[in-house]
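Technical note accompanying the year-one report. For the benefit of new consortium partners, we illustrate the data format agreed upon in the data management plan: each record pairs a sequence with a C-alpha coordinate string. No post-processing was applied to the example shown here.
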Amino acid sequence: MFSLKDYSLIGNSRASALVSRYGSIDWCCLPEFHSPALFAAILDQAKGGHFAILPVEEYESFQQYIPGTNVLQTIFKTTSGELTLTDAFVALTEEEKKLSLFPDHEILRILKCTGRVEVKMQFEPTLFYGKWRPTVINNKKMGIKFSSKENAYVLQSNLDEGIFEVTKNKAVATFELKEGEEVIFSFSCSTQSPAIIPEVPTTGSYRMAQTIRFWETWSGRCTYEGVYKDQVIRSALVLKLLTHAPSGSIIAAPTTSLPEETGGERNWDYRYCWLRDASFTVRALLKLGYELEAQAYMNWILHATQLTQPRLQIVYSVYGQAKLKEEQLPWLSGFNNSVPVRIGNGAYNQYQLDVYGEVLDAFFSYSNIIETFDHETRKFLLGLANVICELWDVPDNGIWEMRSSPQHHTHSKVMAWVGLDRLIKLVAKYGWETAHLQKYETTKSAIEAQVNERGYSRELQCYTSTLDGTNIDASSLVFSLVKFCKASSEEMTSTVKQIQQRLSKNKLIFRYRGADDGVSGGEGCFGICNFWLVENLAKSGNIEEAIDIFETVLKTASATGLLSEEVEPATGELLGNYPQGFTHIGLINAALSINEAQKKETA
Protein backbone atom coordinates (compact mmCIF):
# COMPACT_ATOMS: atom_id res chain seq x y z
CA MET A 1 0.00 0.00 0.00
CA PHE A 2 1.28 3.44 -0.95
CA SER A 3 0.72 6.40 1.35
CA LEU A 4 0.14 10.01 0.36
CA LYS A 5 2.24 10.97 3.37
CA ASP A 6 5.26 9.68 1.45
CA TYR A 7 4.91 12.53 -1.07
CA SER A 8 5.70 16.23 -1.11
CA LEU A 9 4.94 18.88 -3.72
CA ILE A 10 7.26 21.07 -5.76
CA GLY A 11 6.19 23.56 -8.43
CA ASN A 12 6.50 26.98 -10.04
CA SER A 13 2.90 28.34 -9.97
CA ARG A 14 2.11 26.88 -13.37
CA ALA A 15 2.95 23.20 -13.07
CA SER A 16 3.93 20.89 -10.22
CA ALA A 17 5.24 17.45 -9.30
CA LEU A 18 4.89 15.00 -6.43
CA VAL A 19 8.20 13.61 -5.16
CA SER A 20 8.21 10.54 -2.94
CA ARG A 21 10.55 10.00 -0.02
CA TYR A 22 12.00 7.21 -2.16
CA GLY A 23 13.41 9.83 -4.53
CA SER A 24 10.88 9.31 -7.32
CA ILE A 25 8.84 11.91 -9.18
CA ASP A 26 5.64 9.89 -9.52
CA TRP A 27 3.31 12.63 -10.73
CA CYS A 28 4.04 15.54 -13.03
CA CYS A 29 1.90 17.27 -15.67
CA LEU A 30 3.57 19.62 -18.14
CA PRO A 31 3.34 22.29 -19.38
CA GLU A 32 0.21 23.12 -17.32
CA PHE A 33 -1.50 21.78 -14.19
CA HIS A 34 -4.20 20.15 -16.32
CA SER A 35 -1.87 18.85 -19.07
CA PRO A 36 -1.59 15.08 -19.53
CA ALA A 37 0.84 13.56 -17.03
CA LEU A 38 4.38 12.64 -18.11
CA PHE A 39 5.00 10.80 -14.85
CA ALA A 40 1.97 9.05 -13.38
CA ALA A 41 3.36 6.18 -11.31
CA ILE A 42 1.23 7.31 -8.38
CA LEU A 43 -1.74 6.03 -10.41
CA ASP A 44 -0.02 2.94 -11.81
CA GLN A 45 3.48 1.87 -10.80
CA ALA A 46 3.95 -0.33 -13.88
CA LYS A 47 2.52 1.89 -16.60
CA GLY A 48 2.55 5.43 -15.25
CA GLY A 49 6.19 6.40 -15.65
CA HIS A 50 8.57 7.99 -13.14
CA PHE A 51 11.88 9.79 -12.63
CA ALA A 52 13.72 8.23 -9.70
CA ILE A 53 17.05 8.98 -8.01
CA LEU A 54 17.96 6.85 -4.97
CA PRO A 55 20.74 4.83 -3.34
CA VAL A 56 21.49 1.34 -4.64
CA GLU A 57 21.87 -0.15 -1.15
CA GLU A 58 19.23 -0.23 1.56
CA TYR A 59 18.44 3.11 3.15
CA GLU A 60 16.22 5.08 5.48
CA SER A 61 14.80 8.35 4.20
CA PHE A 62 12.80 11.39 5.19
CA GLN A 63 11.76 14.67 3.59
CA GLN A 64 11.83 18.31 4.61
CA TYR A 65 11.37 21.67 2.93
CA ILE A 66 14.10 24.28 3.23
CA PRO A 67 12.33 26.65 5.68
CA GLY A 68 10.21 29.32 4.03
CA THR A 69 10.48 27.71 0.59
CA ASN A 70 8.98 25.12 -1.73
CA VAL A 71 12.41 23.59 -2.25
CA LEU A 72 12.34 19.98 -1.10
CA GLN A 73 15.10 17.89 0.41
CA THR A 74 15.00 14.10 0.59
CA ILE A 75 17.68 12.71 2.90
CA PHE A 76 18.82 9.10 2.40
CA LYS A 77 20.86 7.41 5.11
CA THR A 78 22.84 4.28 4.23
CA THR A 79 25.53 2.31 6.04
CA SER A 80 28.22 3.95 3.91
CA GLY A 81 27.06 7.54 3.80
CA GLU A 82 24.28 10.12 3.58
CA LEU A 83 22.75 11.49 0.40
CA THR A 84 20.78 14.74 0.16
CA LEU A 85 18.55 15.14 -2.89
CA THR A 86 17.33 18.71 -3.36
CA ASP A 87 14.36 19.10 -5.72
CA ALA A 88 12.69 22.21 -7.09
CA PHE A 89 11.02 23.72 -10.10
CA VAL A 90 13.18 26.71 -10.93
CA ALA A 91 11.40 29.90 -9.88
CA LEU A 92 12.82 33.27 -10.92
CA THR A 93 11.73 36.88 -10.62
CA GLU A 94 10.66 38.69 -13.79
CA GLU A 95 13.89 40.70 -13.66
CA GLU A 96 15.98 37.52 -13.49
CA LYS A 97 14.12 35.99 -16.43
CA LYS A 98 15.01 38.97 -18.61
CA LEU A 99 18.72 38.39 -18.14
CA SER A 100 18.88 35.08 -20.03
CA LEU A 101 16.94 32.70 -22.23
CA PHE A 102 15.01 30.24 -20.14
CA PRO A 103 12.77 27.23 -20.91
CA ASP A 104 9.12 27.26 -19.86
CA HIS A 105 9.87 24.83 -17.03
CA GLU A 106 12.94 23.34 -15.41
CA ILE A 107 13.06 20.80 -12.59
CA LEU A 108 16.43 20.77 -10.86
CA ARG A 109 17.51 17.71 -8.87
CA ILE A 110 20.82 18.20 -7.05
CA LEU A 111 22.63 15.43 -5.16
CA LYS A 112 25.20 16.01 -2.44
CA CYS A 113 27.00 13.30 -0.51
CA THR A 114 28.55 12.69 2.88
CA GLY A 115 30.67 9.56 2.97
CA ARG A 116 30.27 7.33 -0.07
CA VAL A 117 26.99 6.30 -1.73
CA GLU A 118 26.26 4.36 -4.92
CA VAL A 119 23.30 5.91 -6.73
CA LYS A 120 20.91 4.76 -9.45
CA MET A 121 18.83 6.99 -11.72
CA GLN A 122 15.78 5.78 -13.65
CA PHE A 123 14.07 8.06 -16.18
CA GLU A 124 10.92 6.58 -17.72
CA PRO A 125 8.55 9.24 -19.08
CA THR A 126 5.18 8.49 -20.67
CA LEU A 127 2.65 10.36 -22.77
CA PHE A 128 -1.02 10.93 -21.94
CA TYR A 129 -1.07 9.43 -18.46
CA GLY A 130 0.90 6.30 -19.36
CA LYS A 131 -1.05 5.37 -22.47
CA TRP A 132 2.02 5.68 -24.71
CA ARG A 133 5.77 5.72 -24.19
CA PRO A 134 7.80 8.28 -26.13
CA THR A 135 11.00 7.49 -28.02
CA VAL A 136 13.89 8.70 -25.89
CA ILE A 137 16.93 9.94 -27.84
CA ASN A 138 20.44 10.39 -26.46
CA ASN A 139 21.80 13.60 -27.94
CA LYS A 140 25.03 13.24 -25.95
CA LYS A 141 26.11 16.67 -24.69
CA MET A 142 22.73 18.14 -25.68
CA GLY A 143 20.99 15.79 -23.28
CA ILE A 144 18.42 13.02 -23.44
CA LYS A 145 15.40 14.22 -25.40
CA PHE A 146 11.84 13.29 -26.29
CA SER A 147 8.99 15.33 -27.70
CA SER A 148 5.21 15.43 -27.86
CA LYS A 149 3.37 17.64 -30.32
CA GLU A 150 4.86 21.13 -29.91
CA ASN A 151 6.57 20.34 -26.59
CA ALA A 152 10.24 19.37 -26.26
CA TYR A 153 11.60 17.71 -23.11
CA VAL A 154 15.30 17.42 -22.25
CA LEU A 155 17.10 15.64 -19.41
CA GLN A 156 20.64 16.88 -18.74
CA SER A 157 23.31 16.22 -16.15
CA ASN A 158 26.85 17.19 -15.25
CA LEU A 159 27.75 13.47 -15.27
CA ASP A 160 29.84 12.01 -18.05
CA GLU A 161 27.45 11.30 -20.94
CA GLY A 162 28.80 7.78 -21.33
CA ILE A 163 27.38 6.76 -17.96
CA PHE A 164 23.80 6.73 -19.30
CA GLU A 165 22.26 3.61 -20.79
CA VAL A 166 19.52 4.80 -23.11
CA THR A 167 17.08 2.37 -24.68
CA LYS A 168 14.00 3.13 -26.74
CA ASN A 169 11.77 4.35 -23.92
CA LYS A 170 13.98 5.04 -20.91
CA ALA A 171 17.35 6.08 -19.56
CA VAL A 172 19.17 4.60 -16.57
CA ALA A 173 22.49 5.26 -14.88
CA THR A 174 24.44 3.97 -11.90
CA PHE A 175 27.25 6.00 -10.38
CA GLU A 176 29.11 6.54 -7.12
CA LEU A 177 29.20 9.77 -5.15
CA LYS A 178 31.98 10.55 -2.71
CA GLU A 179 32.33 13.03 0.13
CA GLY A 180 31.57 16.58 -1.00
CA GLU A 181 30.70 15.67 -4.60
CA GLU A 182 27.66 17.18 -6.31
CA VAL A 183 25.62 15.87 -9.23
CA ILE A 184 22.98 17.97 -10.98
CA PHE A 185 20.07 16.72 -13.07
CA SER A 186 17.95 19.14 -15.06
CA PHE A 187 14.65 18.17 -16.68
CA SER A 188 13.27 20.97 -18.84
CA CYS A 189 10.19 21.59 -20.96
CA SER A 190 10.00 24.04 -23.85
CA THR A 191 6.73 24.77 -25.61
CA GLN A 192 8.23 26.93 -28.35
CA SER A 193 10.61 26.14 -31.17
CA PRO A 194 13.56 26.12 -31.07
CA ALA A 195 13.75 24.53 -27.62
CA ILE A 196 15.75 26.39 -24.98
CA ILE A 197 18.17 24.05 -23.22
CA PRO A 198 19.40 25.43 -19.89
CA GLU A 199 23.11 25.28 -19.11
CA VAL A 200 23.65 22.81 -16.27
CA PRO A 201 27.26 22.16 -15.16
CA THR A 202 28.21 25.71 -14.18
CA THR A 203 24.87 27.50 -13.59
CA GLY A 204 22.51 24.82 -12.28
CA SER A 205 23.47 25.38 -8.65
CA TYR A 206 23.08 29.12 -9.15
CA ARG A 207 19.49 28.69 -10.39
CA MET A 208 18.74 26.57 -7.35
CA ALA A 209 20.08 29.36 -5.14
CA GLN A 210 17.92 31.86 -7.03
CA THR A 211 14.89 29.62 -6.50
CA ILE A 212 15.52 29.37 -2.76
CA ARG A 213 15.84 33.14 -2.59
CA PHE A 214 12.62 33.57 -4.62
CA TRP A 215 10.60 31.51 -2.14
CA GLU A 216 12.22 33.04 0.94
CA THR A 217 11.34 36.49 -0.37
CA TRP A 218 7.75 35.46 -1.08
CA SER A 219 7.12 33.80 2.28
CA GLY A 220 8.85 36.76 3.95
CA ARG A 221 5.98 38.96 2.75
CA CYS A 222 3.59 37.17 5.11
CA THR A 223 2.43 39.65 7.76
CA TYR A 224 1.01 37.07 10.17
CA GLU A 225 2.75 36.84 13.56
CA GLY A 226 0.33 34.74 15.59
CA VAL A 227 0.06 31.15 16.81
CA TYR A 228 0.90 28.28 14.45
CA LYS A 229 2.90 30.65 12.25
CA ASP A 230 4.99 27.84 10.73
CA GLN A 231 1.90 25.87 9.70
CA VAL A 232 0.24 29.01 8.33
CA ILE A 233 3.29 29.87 6.20
CA ARG A 234 3.51 26.30 4.91
CA SER A 235 -0.17 26.45 3.94
CA ALA A 236 0.41 29.81 2.23
CA LEU A 237 3.30 28.25 0.30
CA VAL A 238 1.00 25.40 -0.76
CA LEU A 239 -1.55 27.93 -2.04
CA LYS A 240 1.20 29.67 -3.99
CA LEU A 241 2.12 26.33 -5.60
CA LEU A 242 -1.54 25.86 -6.55
CA THR A 243 -1.73 29.35 -8.03
CA HIS A 244 -1.60 29.55 -11.82
CA ALA A 245 0.56 32.64 -12.25
CA PRO A 246 -0.37 33.47 -15.87
CA SER A 247 -4.07 33.74 -15.01
CA GLY A 248 -4.20 34.35 -11.24
CA SER A 249 -6.45 31.35 -10.66
CA ILE A 250 -5.97 28.84 -7.85
CA ILE A 251 -6.59 25.15 -8.51
CA ALA A 252 -8.18 22.89 -5.91
CA ALA A 253 -5.36 20.31 -6.04
CA PRO A 254 -2.59 19.33 -8.48
CA THR A 255 -3.76 15.72 -8.83
CA THR A 256 -6.56 13.56 -10.17
CA SER A 257 -8.26 10.39 -8.98
CA LEU A 258 -6.60 10.02 -5.59
CA PRO A 259 -9.39 8.11 -3.82
CA GLU A 260 -11.61 9.32 -1.01
CA GLU A 261 -11.81 5.68 0.04
CA THR A 262 -9.09 3.14 -0.77
CA GLY A 263 -10.46 0.84 -3.45
CA GLY A 264 -13.51 3.05 -3.95
CA GLU A 265 -14.82 4.95 -6.96
CA ARG A 266 -14.93 8.46 -5.48
CA ASN A 267 -11.97 9.51 -7.56
CA TRP A 268 -12.15 12.97 -9.13
CA ASP A 269 -10.00 15.37 -11.10
CA TYR A 270 -9.30 18.48 -9.01
CA ARG A 271 -6.85 20.31 -11.30
CA TYR A 272 -9.42 23.06 -11.84
CA CYS A 273 -10.70 26.15 -10.07
CA TRP A 274 -13.82 26.06 -7.88
CA LEU A 275 -15.67 29.32 -7.23
CA ARG A 276 -16.95 27.92 -3.90
CA ASP A 277 -13.43 28.51 -2.53
CA ALA A 278 -13.53 32.23 -3.33
CA SER A 279 -14.63 33.87 -0.09
CA PHE A 280 -12.42 31.78 2.19
CA THR A 281 -9.45 32.14 -0.18
CA VAL A 282 -9.65 35.92 -0.38
CA ARG A 283 -10.07 36.18 3.37
CA ALA A 284 -6.94 34.10 3.94
CA LEU A 285 -4.81 35.93 1.36
CA LEU A 286 -5.75 39.38 2.61
CA LYS A 287 -5.19 38.57 6.28
CA LEU A 288 -1.73 37.22 5.49
CA GLY A 289 -0.81 40.35 3.54
CA TYR A 290 -0.88 38.84 0.04
CA GLU A 291 -2.91 41.59 -1.62
CA LEU A 292 -1.36 41.12 -5.08
CA GLU A 293 -2.38 37.45 -5.11
CA ALA A 294 -5.90 38.37 -3.98
CA GLN A 295 -6.13 40.97 -6.75
CA ALA A 296 -4.96 38.48 -9.38
CA TYR A 297 -7.50 35.93 -8.15
CA MET A 298 -10.37 38.43 -8.31
CA ASN A 299 -9.33 39.45 -11.82
CA TRP A 300 -9.35 35.78 -12.82
CA ILE A 301 -12.93 35.41 -11.56
CA LEU A 302 -13.99 38.33 -13.74
CA HIS A 303 -12.21 36.85 -16.75
CA ALA A 304 -13.25 33.22 -16.26
CA THR A 305 -16.93 34.01 -15.92
CA GLN A 306 -17.18 36.25 -19.00
CA LEU A 307 -18.75 33.57 -21.19
CA THR A 308 -21.37 32.55 -18.63
CA GLN A 309 -22.24 35.89 -16.95
CA PRO A 310 -24.45 36.64 -15.17
CA ARG A 311 -24.79 32.90 -14.50
CA LEU A 312 -21.90 31.17 -12.79
CA GLN A 313 -20.52 27.69 -13.15
CA ILE A 314 -19.09 26.07 -10.06
CA VAL A 315 -15.77 25.20 -11.69
CA TYR A 316 -13.60 26.46 -14.56
CA SER A 317 -10.20 25.65 -16.02
CA VAL A 318 -7.27 27.94 -15.18
CA TYR A 319 -7.94 29.86 -18.38
CA GLY A 320 -11.69 30.09 -17.86
CA GLN A 321 -12.67 27.14 -20.05
CA ALA A 322 -16.25 26.29 -19.19
CA LYS A 323 -16.58 22.70 -20.43
CA LEU A 324 -14.50 20.13 -18.56
CA LYS A 325 -15.52 16.87 -20.18
CA GLU A 326 -15.19 13.98 -17.74
CA GLU A 327 -13.74 10.71 -19.03
CA GLN A 328 -12.06 7.60 -17.67
CA LEU A 329 -8.57 6.17 -18.29
CA PRO A 330 -9.15 2.40 -18.17
CA TRP A 331 -5.51 1.44 -18.74
CA LEU A 332 -4.46 2.76 -15.31
CA SER A 333 -4.90 0.62 -12.18
CA GLY A 334 -5.31 3.65 -9.92
CA PHE A 335 -3.77 4.66 -6.61
CA ASN A 336 -3.72 1.49 -4.50
CA ASN A 337 -5.97 -0.13 -7.13
CA SER A 338 -8.70 2.48 -6.77
CA VAL A 339 -10.58 2.89 -10.04
CA PRO A 340 -11.83 4.51 -12.15
CA VAL A 341 -9.11 7.03 -12.95
CA ARG A 342 -10.82 10.16 -14.28
CA ILE A 343 -9.79 13.33 -16.08
CA GLY A 344 -12.10 16.30 -16.52
CA ASN A 345 -14.92 16.96 -14.10
CA GLY A 346 -18.61 16.59 -14.89
CA ALA A 347 -19.55 18.86 -12.00
CA TYR A 348 -19.07 21.83 -14.36
CA ASN A 349 -22.66 21.42 -15.60
CA GLN A 350 -24.25 21.30 -12.14
CA TYR A 351 -26.25 24.17 -10.67
CA GLN A 352 -24.99 25.35 -7.28
CA LEU A 353 -26.73 28.35 -5.78
CA ASP A 354 -24.08 28.87 -3.10
CA VAL A 355 -21.36 30.03 -5.53
CA TYR A 356 -23.16 33.34 -6.06
CA GLY A 357 -22.88 34.13 -2.38
CA GLU A 358 -19.29 33.01 -2.18
CA VAL A 359 -18.23 35.21 -5.09
CA LEU A 360 -20.10 38.25 -3.78
CA ASP A 361 -18.60 37.70 -0.33
CA ALA A 362 -15.13 37.55 -1.87
CA PHE A 363 -15.66 40.87 -3.68
CA PHE A 364 -16.99 42.40 -0.47
CA SER A 365 -13.82 41.37 1.39
CA TYR A 366 -11.72 42.60 -1.51
CA SER A 367 -13.44 46.00 -1.37
CA ASN A 368 -11.57 46.70 1.87
CA ILE A 369 -8.31 47.25 -0.03
CA ILE A 370 -9.53 49.14 -3.11
CA GLU A 371 -11.22 52.50 -3.55
CA THR A 372 -13.91 51.45 -6.01
CA PHE A 373 -14.98 48.93 -8.64
CA ASP A 374 -15.15 49.81 -12.33
CA HIS A 375 -18.38 49.88 -14.30
CA GLU A 376 -18.04 46.35 -15.67
CA THR A 377 -17.34 44.85 -12.24
CA ARG A 378 -20.28 46.71 -10.74
CA LYS A 379 -22.52 45.41 -13.55
CA PHE A 380 -21.24 41.87 -12.90
CA LEU A 381 -21.96 42.04 -9.16
CA LEU A 382 -25.45 43.46 -9.63
CA GLY A 383 -26.08 40.73 -12.19
CA LEU A 384 -25.19 38.06 -9.63
CA ALA A 385 -27.67 39.54 -7.18
CA ASN A 386 -30.38 39.47 -9.83
CA VAL A 387 -29.68 35.78 -10.50
CA ILE A 388 -29.98 35.04 -6.78
CA CYS A 389 -33.37 36.76 -6.69
CA GLU A 390 -34.45 34.68 -9.68
CA LEU A 391 -33.14 31.28 -8.58
CA TRP A 392 -32.88 31.26 -4.79
CA ASP A 393 -35.91 28.98 -4.35
CA VAL A 394 -34.84 26.46 -7.02
CA PRO A 395 -33.33 23.11 -5.87
CA ASP A 396 -29.60 22.73 -6.54
CA ASN A 397 -26.76 20.21 -6.23
CA GLY A 398 -25.28 21.88 -3.14
CA ILE A 399 -21.74 22.62 -2.01
CA TRP A 400 -20.79 18.92 -2.08
CA GLU A 401 -21.80 18.53 -5.73
CA MET A 402 -24.36 15.82 -5.09
CA ARG A 403 -24.81 13.63 -8.16
CA SER A 404 -28.28 12.62 -7.02
CA SER A 405 -31.35 14.75 -7.75
CA PRO A 406 -31.22 18.46 -6.83
CA GLN A 407 -32.62 19.46 -3.43
CA HIS A 408 -33.23 22.56 -1.34
CA HIS A 409 -29.90 22.61 0.51
CA THR A 410 -29.87 24.80 3.59
CA HIS A 411 -26.25 25.84 3.05
CA SER A 412 -27.13 27.04 -0.46
CA LYS A 413 -29.95 29.21 0.90
CA VAL A 414 -27.68 30.72 3.53
CA MET A 415 -25.04 31.56 0.92
CA ALA A 416 -27.75 33.17 -1.25
CA TRP A 417 -28.57 35.32 1.80
CA VAL A 418 -24.87 36.13 2.13
CA GLY A 419 -24.69 37.22 -1.51
CA LEU A 420 -27.54 39.67 -1.17
CA ASP A 421 -26.31 40.91 2.20
CA ARG A 422 -22.87 41.72 0.77
CA LEU A 423 -24.28 43.30 -2.39
CA ILE A 424 -26.58 45.55 -0.32
CA LYS A 425 -23.55 46.62 1.75
CA LEU A 426 -21.56 47.35 -1.44
CA VAL A 427 -24.44 49.47 -2.80
CA ALA A 428 -24.42 51.50 0.42
CA LYS A 429 -20.62 51.76 0.55
CA TYR A 430 -20.18 53.04 -2.99
CA GLY A 431 -23.52 54.83 -3.41
CA TRP A 432 -24.47 52.74 -6.43
CA GLU A 433 -27.77 53.55 -8.08
CA THR A 434 -29.97 50.50 -8.66
CA ALA A 435 -33.68 50.14 -9.20
CA HIS A 436 -33.59 46.68 -7.60
CA LEU A 437 -32.43 47.49 -4.07
CA GLN A 438 -35.86 46.89 -2.57
CA LYS A 439 -36.01 43.53 -4.37
CA TYR A 440 -32.64 42.56 -2.91
CA GLU A 441 -33.71 43.47 0.61
CA THR A 442 -37.09 41.72 0.31
CA THR A 443 -35.53 38.56 -1.10
CA LYS A 444 -32.82 38.54 1.58
CA SER A 445 -35.52 38.70 4.28
CA ALA A 446 -37.48 35.91 2.61
CA ILE A 447 -34.43 33.65 2.49
CA GLU A 448 -33.62 34.33 6.14
CA ALA A 449 -37.17 33.50 7.17
CA GLN A 450 -37.15 30.29 5.14
CA VAL A 451 -33.87 29.10 6.68
CA ASN A 452 -35.01 29.89 10.21
CA GLU A 453 -38.38 28.19 9.71
CA ARG A 454 -37.44 25.18 7.58
CA GLY A 455 -33.65 24.86 7.75
CA TYR A 456 -33.43 24.56 11.54
CA SER A 457 -35.02 21.58 13.26
CA ARG A 458 -36.41 22.30 16.73
CA GLU A 459 -36.70 18.56 17.27
CA LEU A 460 -33.06 17.82 16.37
CA GLN A 461 -31.80 21.13 17.79
CA CYS A 462 -29.62 21.83 14.76
CA TYR A 463 -29.53 23.18 11.23
CA THR A 464 -30.35 20.46 8.73
CA SER A 465 -28.77 19.50 5.43
CA THR A 466 -31.93 20.31 3.48
CA LEU A 467 -35.07 22.28 4.19
CA ASP A 468 -37.52 20.23 6.27
CA GLY A 469 -34.88 17.49 6.38
CA THR A 470 -33.64 15.21 9.14
CA ASN A 471 -29.99 14.79 8.12
CA ILE A 472 -27.23 17.05 9.39
CA ASP A 473 -24.31 18.39 7.39
CA ALA A 474 -20.98 19.92 8.38
CA SER A 475 -21.54 22.71 5.86
CA SER A 476 -23.80 24.23 8.55
CA LEU A 477 -20.61 25.19 10.37
CA VAL A 478 -20.14 27.90 7.74
CA PHE A 479 -23.23 29.83 8.86
CA SER A 480 -21.53 31.65 11.71
CA LEU A 481 -18.35 32.20 9.70
CA VAL A 482 -20.29 34.14 7.04
CA LYS A 483 -22.23 36.01 9.77
CA PHE A 484 -25.65 34.56 9.09
CA CYS A 485 -25.71 33.93 12.83
CA LYS A 486 -23.25 34.21 15.73
CA ALA A 487 -21.04 31.30 16.74
CA SER A 488 -22.27 31.83 20.31
CA SER A 489 -25.97 31.74 19.34
CA GLU A 490 -28.14 28.98 20.76
CA GLU A 491 -28.84 27.59 17.28
CA MET A 492 -25.15 27.45 16.31
CA THR A 493 -23.79 26.05 19.57
CA SER A 494 -26.46 23.35 19.48
CA THR A 495 -25.65 22.57 15.84
CA VAL A 496 -21.96 22.28 16.68
CA LYS A 497 -22.81 19.86 19.48
CA GLN A 498 -24.98 17.71 17.21
CA ILE A 499 -22.31 17.64 14.47
CA GLN A 500 -19.69 16.54 16.98
CA GLN A 501 -21.97 13.81 18.31
CA ARG A 502 -23.29 12.49 15.02
CA LEU A 503 -20.57 13.17 12.46
CA SER A 504 -17.43 12.71 14.55
CA LYS A 505 -14.97 9.83 14.86
CA ASN A 506 -11.71 10.13 16.80
CA LYS A 507 -12.29 13.90 17.04
CA LEU A 508 -12.46 14.21 13.23
CA ILE A 509 -15.73 14.94 11.44
CA PHE A 510 -17.33 13.74 8.24
CA ARG A 511 -19.11 16.25 6.03
CA TYR A 512 -22.29 14.10 6.12
CA ARG A 513 -23.30 10.49 6.69
CA GLY A 514 -26.09 8.38 5.28
CA ALA A 515 -27.09 10.79 2.54
CA ASP A 516 -27.81 9.66 -1.02
CA ASP A 517 -25.24 11.64 -3.00
CA GLY A 518 -25.49 9.59 -6.19
CA VAL A 519 -22.13 7.80 -5.77
CA SER A 520 -21.50 4.43 -4.15
CA GLY A 521 -18.96 3.73 -1.43
CA GLY A 522 -17.74 5.73 1.53
CA GLU A 523 -15.24 8.46 2.26
CA GLY A 524 -13.06 9.83 5.02
CA CYS A 525 -13.43 12.79 7.34
CA PHE A 526 -13.38 16.04 5.39
CA GLY A 527 -10.40 18.31 6.02
CA ILE A 528 -11.86 21.80 5.88
CA CYS A 529 -14.96 20.83 7.87
CA ASN A 530 -12.70 20.17 10.86
CA PHE A 531 -11.20 23.63 10.53
CA TRP A 532 -14.69 25.16 10.28
CA LEU A 533 -15.44 23.40 13.57
CA VAL A 534 -12.26 24.86 15.07
CA GLU A 535 -13.33 28.36 14.03
CA ASN A 536 -16.76 27.96 15.59
CA LEU A 537 -15.30 26.72 18.86
CA ALA A 538 -12.75 29.53 18.97
CA LYS A 539 -15.34 32.21 18.16
CA SER A 540 -17.72 30.90 20.83
CA GLY A 541 -15.01 30.97 23.51
CA ASN A 542 -14.12 27.26 23.60
CA ILE A 543 -10.47 27.94 22.83
CA GLU A 544 -8.95 24.88 24.49
CA GLU A 545 -11.24 22.53 22.58
CA ALA A 546 -10.56 24.43 19.36
CA ILE A 547 -6.81 23.99 19.86
CA ASP A 548 -7.26 20.30 20.67
CA ILE A 549 -9.11 19.62 17.40
CA PHE A 550 -6.75 21.84 15.42
CA GLU A 551 -3.76 19.86 16.66
CA THR A 552 -5.59 16.57 16.05
CA VAL A 553 -5.82 17.53 12.37
CA LEU A 554 -2.19 18.65 12.30
CA LYS A 555 -1.12 15.18 13.45
CA THR A 556 -2.57 13.72 10.23
CA ALA A 557 -0.40 15.89 7.98
CA SER A 558 2.60 14.54 6.09
CA ALA A 559 6.08 15.03 7.54
CA THR A 560 6.39 18.16 5.39
CA GLY A 561 3.08 19.59 6.64
CA LEU A 562 0.83 18.80 3.66
CA LEU A 563 -2.85 17.93 4.01
CA SER A 564 -5.20 16.22 1.58
CA GLU A 565 -8.92 16.57 1.02
CA GLU A 566 -9.87 13.92 3.58
CA VAL A 567 -8.42 11.68 6.27
CA GLU A 568 -9.23 8.15 7.46
CA PRO A 569 -10.16 8.74 11.13
CA ALA A 570 -9.10 5.31 12.40
CA THR A 571 -5.59 5.35 10.93
CA GLY A 572 -4.90 8.99 10.14
CA GLU A 573 -4.16 8.03 6.53
CA LEU A 574 -4.63 10.86 4.04
CA LEU A 575 -7.32 10.40 1.40
CA GLY A 576 -8.44 12.27 -1.69
CA ASN A 577 -6.53 14.67 -3.88
CA TYR A 578 -3.31 15.99 -2.40
CA PRO A 579 -2.35 18.51 -1.31
CA GLN A 580 -5.78 20.12 -1.15
CA GLY A 581 -5.97 23.90 -1.32
CA PHE A 582 -9.37 24.09 0.40
CA THR A 583 -7.98 22.23 3.43
CA HIS A 584 -4.95 24.50 3.71
CA ILE A 585 -7.19 27.56 3.36
CA GLY A 586 -9.18 26.13 6.27
CA LEU A 587 -6.01 25.71 8.32
CA ILE A 588 -5.02 29.35 7.76
CA ASN A 589 -8.43 30.72 8.71
CA ALA A 590 -8.69 28.43 11.75
CA ALA A 591 -5.28 29.53 13.02
CA LEU A 592 -6.32 33.16 12.55
CA SER A 593 -9.53 32.55 14.51
CA ILE A 594 -7.66 30.89 17.39
CA ASN A 595 -5.20 33.76 17.45
CA GLU A 596 -7.97 36.36 17.50
CA ALA A 597 -9.83 34.49 20.25
CA GLN A 598 -6.72 34.29 22.43
CA LYS A 599 -6.10 38.01 22.01
CA LYS A 600 -9.66 38.81 23.08
CA GLU A 601 -9.35 36.50 26.08
CA THR A 602 -6.20 38.23 27.32
CA ALA A 603 -7.29 41.78 26.43
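Partners are asked to follow this layout when depositing records. The longest strand covers residues 105-124.
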